[in-house]
Write a structure and sequence with these properties.
Organism: Scutellospora calospora
CATH class of the largest domain: Mainly Alpha
Distance between the termini: 36 Å
CATH architecture of the largest domain: Up-down Bundle
Protein name: 9533_t:CDS:1
Radius of gyration: 17 Å
Number of strands: 4
CATH topology of the largest domain: Glutathione S-transferase Yfyf (Class Pi), Chain A, domain 2
Structural class: alpha+beta
Strand order of the largest sheet: 2-1-3-4
Strand content: 5-15%
């Protein structure tokens, strides 16, 4: 019998949140080991140890889990819909989130740039494109009425937008999907404020 998977996690990491959601969705029981990114602890987050392999980079982990645990799939069977999902994943995980991750923000602080303005610019520019894509793909969720990897990536980014007080009025599709996802148990369980390393004062604010 394989040992329980281990996820190296930081509660507010968007990338780790994606993996937590996927593991929850597929019903994979796992152990969490916490890494405090604010203390510069040297571990790559997320890192997943599973089935005697070690994986990093959230999208690669999501794809791997989809291949080895096909139960409760997060990619549609239709090739075109799969491409639509992957396009949205790339728009969020490749084009938005890396521009406002912790290493970038620390660089901006050192350079004297306005960190919050940069974050708002990056998220809004990216959400403009995502909202436009959703015009053609949206059902109850990002691509139709089935939860996909696009949804797994969207909700953490919406959390970041709200955290930085970005007005989401111009993104009604994104807001509606996020509201729908927030009701699902796998997503609720993965929320940063429900993680054991989350500061106590935040735990009742999700």
């Amino acid at each position: 019998m394989s040992k329980k998977p281990i996820l190296y996690s930081y509660y507010r990491s968007s990338c780790t949140w994606r993996v937590r959601t996927c593991l929850n969705w597929k019903g994979i029981d796992y152990e969490t080991r916490f890494v405090d990114l604010l203390k510069d602890e040297h571990a790559l987050v997320p890192t997943l140890e599973i089935d005697d392999v070690v994986l990093s980079q959230s999208v690669a982990i999501l794809e791997y889990l989809e291949e080895i645990r096909p139960e409760k799939p997060l990619l549609p069977k239709d090739p075109y819909k799969r491409a639509l999902v992957r396009s949205l994943v790339q728009a969020i995980a490749g084009d938005i989130q890396p521009l406002q991750n912790l290493s970038v923000l620390k660089y901006l602080e050192r350079s004297g740039a306005n960190k919050n303005e940069w974050i708002k610019f990056c998220i809004c520019k990216g959400f403009d494109g995502v909202e436009k894509q959703l015009e053609k793909t949206q059902g109850k969720y990002c691509v139709g009425d089935e939860v996909t990897l696009a949804d797994v990536c969207l909700l953490p980014q919406v959390y970041n937008a709200r955290r930085y007080e970005i007005d989401l009025t111009n993104y009604p599709r994104i807001q509606k999907i996020a509201d729908n996802l927030s009701k699902l148990e796998a997503f609720k369980k993965a929320h940063p404020h429900n993680q054991d390393d989350c500061p106590v004062e935040l735990r009742d604010t999700n």
